[in-house]
Amino acid sequence: MEKIDDNFFEKINDEVKMGMNTKRIIIATAIGALCGIFCAYGTVWKYPDQFGILILASIVYNRALIGFVIGIADNIKAHPAVRGAILGTIVSAAMAIPAGNGGLILVAFGIVYGSIIDVIATKFAEKSG
Predict the structure, then answer these.
(1) Which long-range contacts (CB under 8 A, 24 or more apart) does 92-101 make?
(2) How far is CA 95 from the centre of its chain?
(3) Mind listing the pLDDT tens digit for each residue in 28-82?
(4) Element (H or E) spanning 42, and its range?
(5) What's the pLDDT band for 103 if we cut at 50, 70, 90?
(6) Pairs from 84-91 (Cβ < 8 Å, separation ≥ 24)
(7) Which residues, at least 6 apart from 50, have a Cβ–Cβ distance to it below 8 Å?
(8) What are the residue ranges spanned by the domains of the chain?
(9) Which 3-state string (H, E, C) describes the chain?
């Protein structure tokens, strides 16, 4: 049986990471979840008793997903506000398409939240790294 090199697990870990910034992913996902909670709260406040808990949960999930996608997209070379806006649009489209005309507001807020998430995550990730 062949002996495992002492650096074997470190090499595997480096290959798995592929340059991902774990702190950035956590920060962006957390900010996305907070934006989702804020968005769901605003939905309940503006449209009381119109949306069930599953729709509100999907709003929070969608915004957290925007944060996660932004967190792993730090290798895309673009200004953070632009990159966040584009990714926020793409991820929000999945929730906006079935909503019809009402989905435009979801995309609009996806653009805003995406930009905010990426700018903040980029700034904090740069401070740590």
Answers:
(1) 92/62, 92/66, 94/62, 95/58, 95/59, 95/62
(2) 14
(3) 999 999 999 999 999 999 989 888 999 999 999 999 999 999 999 999 999 999 9
(4) helix 22-46
(5) confident
(6) 84/114, 84/115, 84/116, 84/117, 84/118, 84/119, 85/111, 85/114, 85/115, 86/114, 87/114, 87/118, 88/112, 88/113, 88/114, 88/115, 88/117, 89/114, 91/62, 91/65, 91/66
(7) none
(8) 28-128
(9) CCCCCCCHHHHHHHHHHCCCCHHHHHHHHHHHHHHHHHHHHHHHHHCCCCCCHHHHHHHHHHHHHHHHHHHHCCCCCCCHHHHHHHHHHHHHHHHHHHHHHHHHHHHHHHHHHHHHHHHHHHHHHHHHC
Q: Which two tokens stand for residue 45?
A: 């406040």
* Residue in the structure block whose two tokens are 């996660």: 68
